[in-house]
Amino acid sequence: MTKKTAAFLLCLALLLTACGKSTENGGSNVVTLYFMNQEQNAMVTETRTVPDGTKDVAEYALRELLNGPQASDHKRVIPENTRLLGVELDGDLAKVNLSAEFDTGDDAAKPMSRGTLKNTVCAVDGIEKVLILVDGKELTYLSTGEPVGILGKDDLITDTEKLESEIINVTLYFADSNAMYLVPEKRQIVSKDSSQLELAIMNELLKGPLSDGLYAVVSPDVKVLSAKTERGVCFVNLSSDFISKSSGGSAGELLSVYSIVNSLCELKDVDKVQILIEGKATESFGSLDLSEPLKKNKDLLNN
């Protein structure tokens, strides 16, 4: 087990042990919000006084959670722009519906994001369980894609496969604001199978950048049919959408190809990338020749 994995599992354990009702707050006039410390290795709490006349305390607590911490040494891990779409109470169960932004960002941060939300909801008087929805659909486990389901206050938001996963640092390349160069973006992803790392990188690339000022140059409609490396060459098989939904002219074509090539060439076992369309090598993509494997293009990097 790597040090990163050990730290990750420790954080998950902290998420489990930190949840509980706050009895020292003097009743339901105060809610407890859960955030992370700056190092993101321990949970921290803040309290908010519930305004008189508040009809839905759980909704108030969640909106305050999304507003972020007041203390400078506390960190919000729920992705920015996440919106609360609704809260439905059914006895001691709270069904929380959030916008799609909630399930974006680094895989390594998602268990913390989910945990702070679960703990905040479970800390509200009268609520013992929570069902998290994203755009009306049940939240799923990172490793299996299976629904997480109803969570009790002491449940850990993970599964066996997730605990066996590794947190891996990768470098992805996206276009700058002028669509002239490629800019690297560091990201952490969770991979349970190192042999599928190429596929994981492609899936992250299709999600688009997390940093402001960077832009995706591969259409999110593109499907990755397969990705594997043989003798230093990574063969990436893409759907025809890669060509049919390309935009930006010759400059856009160049950036889209090398966004893929440069990202995959960051892997130690990859020297070149062969892009296939529906299983076949394509002789031309605009002015580019895709019939042969391509090396990393350093001229496109804005150093």
Topology:
Layout: H1 3-18, E1 30-37, E2 43-49, H2 57-67, E3 74-75, E4 84-90, E5 93-98, H3 110-122, E6 129-134, E7 137-138, E8 150-152, H4 160-163, E9 166-175, E10 182-191, H5 197-207, E11 224-230, E12 233-238, H6 241-244, H7 249-264, E13 272-277, E14 280-285, E15 288-290
Parallel strand pairs: 5-6, 12-13
Antiparallel strand pairs: 1-2, 1-3, 4-5, 6-7, 6-8, 9-10, 11-12, 13-14, 14-15
Describe the structure.
Helices cover 25% and strands 29% of the residues. With 303 residues, the chain is an alpha+beta fold. The chain has two domains: 3-163, no CATH class; 166-300, no CATH class. Strands 4, 5, 6, 7 and 8 form a five-stranded mixed beta sheet that branches. Strands 11-12-13-14-15 form a five-stranded mixed beta sheet. The longest helix is centred in the first third of the chain and has 16 residues, at 3-18. The model is unreliable at 1-9, 15-20, 22-27 and 159-164 (pLDDT under 50).
Overview features:
25% helix, 2 domains, five-stranded mixed β-sheet, elongated, alpha+beta, 303 residues, 15 strands, single chain
> Mean pLDDT, as a whole number?
85
Tell me the number of strands.
15
Order of secondary-structure elements:
HEEHEEEHEEEHEEHEEHHEEE
Tell me the domain tally.
2
Share of helix among residues? 10-25%
Task: Note the beta-strand portion.
Answer: 25-35%
Could you describe the largest sheet, including whether it forms a barrel?
Answer: 5 strands, mixed
Number of contiguous helices? 7
In short:
The protein is 25% helix and 29% strand. By secondary structure, the protein is of the alpha+beta class. Helix 1 (3-18) packs parallel to helix 3 (110-122) and helix 5 packs antiparallel against helix 7.
